[in-house]
């Protein structure tokens, strides 16, 4: 009798970038080569050897838990409907639906660069009173600076992986008006029965170029593998960031780099799950068109040129009818 072949599990590569941080050119070339393979498939990887301190990451999760322990009325007073651009502040359980009839079973709080309101996604953040959550704002702002700095390094490695000049993406990711959004999440613990009827976050791809995720040890993030039609867990790796390619980068690289569908399963645990996700959306006026090293002679680009703002407005509008990013982990 024939034995049914079980598809092999998808491996999420773990890449040590410490050689790049240290300025080792030989190690940097090897890291760029590994990134090229990981970005082509599965479009997800984890990085270790980065320079975001363990102390900052520990304080980040501590302040995240303290915020979510506030009374519901205090959190609801910071709801995104009260923000200047509709894209900052608190989201309650069930506020998002991204997969069929599953309401996302998570709370979220979105922040970004402090800019005057005006253009799409730009504006001030909303913050709890210092007396309600001491040290929350200062910790979140310290983390934003560290995560943005790490993002710049990763974009430089991506440029090298695409055989471009190292600073090719600097204007996109590191200008005053570059849009970087970050969100802290709480996924409440649930029973096995309820987990079958809900999602922490429904299946989706990310709108922007590159996403950095910090997750705790509860687990639940899964990526979809198209060739085998299977969902595969992204394991917790101590001190690691989970990184994934977004829709914008897939379009920019003419499909060379893959934006992969992913979801979060509601945690069956005796603890709540916390995560922090950092989205790199870029410059609103940047034109996304096929990168020269991502097309062969005689080949036609898969997508017409589009500005970042037009791309994001369409994706946000398709999903919400408004200015919010649905990407969550």
Please characterize this protein's 3D structure:
It contains nine helices and 16 strands. The chain is α+β, with helices and mostly antiparallel strands. It is globular and about 60 Å long. Residues 321-327 have low confidence and may be disordered.
In the sheet with the most strands, the strands line up as: 1-2-12-9-14-7-6-3
What is the structural class?
Answer: alpha+beta
Estimate what percentage of residues fall within beta strands.
15-25%
As residue ranges, the low-confidence spans are 321-327
**Helical proportion, percent range:** 25-40%
Give a summary of the structure in a few sentences.
The protein is built from 9 helices and 16 strands. By secondary structure, the protein is of the alpha+beta class.
Topology, pairings included?
Blueprint: E1 14-16, H1 18-21, H2 25-40, E2 44-48, H3 54-68, H4 72-76, E3 89-91, E4 97-99, E5 102-103, E6 107-111, H5 136-161, H6 170-174, E7 179-187, H7 192-195, E8 201-204, E9 210-215, E10 221-225, E11 230-233, E12 241-245, H8 247-252, E13 262-264, E14 273-282, E15 287-288, E16 306-307, H9 308-320
Parallel strand pairs: 1-2
Antiparallel strand pairs: 2-12, 3-6, 4-5, 6-7, 7-14, 8-13, 9-12, 9-14, 10-11, 10-13, 15-16
Helix pairs in contact: 2-5, 3-5
Q: Can you give keywords for this protein?
A:
9 helices; alpha+beta; 8-stranded mixed sheet; 329 residues
């Amino acid at each position: 009798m024939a034995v049914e072949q079980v598809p092999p599990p998808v491996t999420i590569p773990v890449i040590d970038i410490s050689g790049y941080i240290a300025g080792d050119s030989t190690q940097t070339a090897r890291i760029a080569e590994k990134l090229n393979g990981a970005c082509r498939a599965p479009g997800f990887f984890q990085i270790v050897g980065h320079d975001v301190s363990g102390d900052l990451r520990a304080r980040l999760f501590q302040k995240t838990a303290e915020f979510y322990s506030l009374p519901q009325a205090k959190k609801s007073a910071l709801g995104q409907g009260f923000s200047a651009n509709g894209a900052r502040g608190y989201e309650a359980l069930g506020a998002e639906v991204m997969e069929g009839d599953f309401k996302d079973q998570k709370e979220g709080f979105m922040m970004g660069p402090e800019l005057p309101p005006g253009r799409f996604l730009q504006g001030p953040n909303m913050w709890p009173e210092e007396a309600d959550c001491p040290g929350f704002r200062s910790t979140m702002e310290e983390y934003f600076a560290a995560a943005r700095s790490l993002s710049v390094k990763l974009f430089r490695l991506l440029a090298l992986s695409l055989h471009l000049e190292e600073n090719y993406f600097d204007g996109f990711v590191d200008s005053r008006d570059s849009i970087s959004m970050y969100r802290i999440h709480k996924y409440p613990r649930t029973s096995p029965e309820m987990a079958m009827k809900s999602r922490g976050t429904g299946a989706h791809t990310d709108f922007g170029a590159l996403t950095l995720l910090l997750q705790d040890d509860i687990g639940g993030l899964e990526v979809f593998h198209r060739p085998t039609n299977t969902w595969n867990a992204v394991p917790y790796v101590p001190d690691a960031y989970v990184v994934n390619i977004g829709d914008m980068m897939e379009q920019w690289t003419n499909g060379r780099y893959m934006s992969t569908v992913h979801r979060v399963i509601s945690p069956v645990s005796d603890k709540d799950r916390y995560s922090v996700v950092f989205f790199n959306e870029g410059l609103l006026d940047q034109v996304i068109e096929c990168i020269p090293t991502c097309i062969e002679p005689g080949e036609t680009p898969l997508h017409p040129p589009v500005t970042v703002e037009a791309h994001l407005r369409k994706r946000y509008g398709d999903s919400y009818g408004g200015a919010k990013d649905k990407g969550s982990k």
